[in-house]
């Protein structure tokens, strides 16, 4: 029996990865959740989890060494997808120590437990494109050897995550690989991220819960967008196609646009497209921003054959549909962000 262990299974990426593995493999899946984690993203899978139909949810916390050690010891997985993190760059400015603990020390706790209990496991450590931070235009597109210049406590924590993953591969001979995933979005994307916040606000305005005003931050930041469903396919190939211990890869989409262009596209899909107004909200601006995030993904594509399959237009349609469904079903439970 092959077992995959997913930290952060309740998040957008973790839940989509669970969907992918349940559909495409026969693996057993053990997912790590914090006791207070909302289960919205796993609602469609909870019946399976309750029946232990190839899916088991276990409690633990990246900040708690004993809990991480126990769940890894019990599961003894063949594959580990370490996705859990304090993943909100803007939040990290307000909670830097919490971010550093969860992401750097939390990764160390996971890898140390794997080293002790299942050292032959193939491990994916999820870093972030944010490690590159403020990249000069002449270095675009960003390849794996681009210098790190992190622009937030979150990005600093992901530099640590990245280096810890490679250290365990080199020091202990473990098959650990690190990814720097560039912007990825789609259904279940948290509303603290720009494009998802826009889609949510549009859905709330269409339903009459808020005025037709979209509050925004920096609209000039340049991003390459991928679909989360393409991302989890990439993660599966990472651990199954000739995995190389200690390697690190940039992964990302093919559609590059400024945040303002992404907003314009979402507005064009709305029934209120002629009525929506845009206002800059100072609370949405970071003290410093990683404003050029365009990847060179050739290293990963050459190794695995992976290429994005889902278009930017389809991703945006699905993201907006996701928020329209949630607003329809749950209405004014949502606070605007």
What does this structure look like?
The chain is of the alpha/beta class. It has two domains: 3-183 and 228-251, Rossmann fold; 194-223 and 255-294 and 310-333, UDP-galactose 4-epimerase, domain 1 (Alpha-Beta Complex). The chain contains eleven helices and 13 strands. The chain has helices spanning 12-24, 46-51, 65-75, 89-94, 96-117, 153-172, 194-206, 228-240, 259-268, 298-304, 312-330, and strands spanning 3-7, 28-33, 55-59, 79-82, 122-126, 175-181, 184-185, 213-216, 222-227, 248-251, 255-258, 277-280, 292-293. The strands form three sheets. The chain has a seven-stranded parallel β-sheet with strand order 3-2-1-4-5-6-10, sandwiched between helices. Strands 7, 9, 11 and 13 form a four-stranded mixed β-sheet that branches. The termini are far apart. The mean pLDDT is 96.
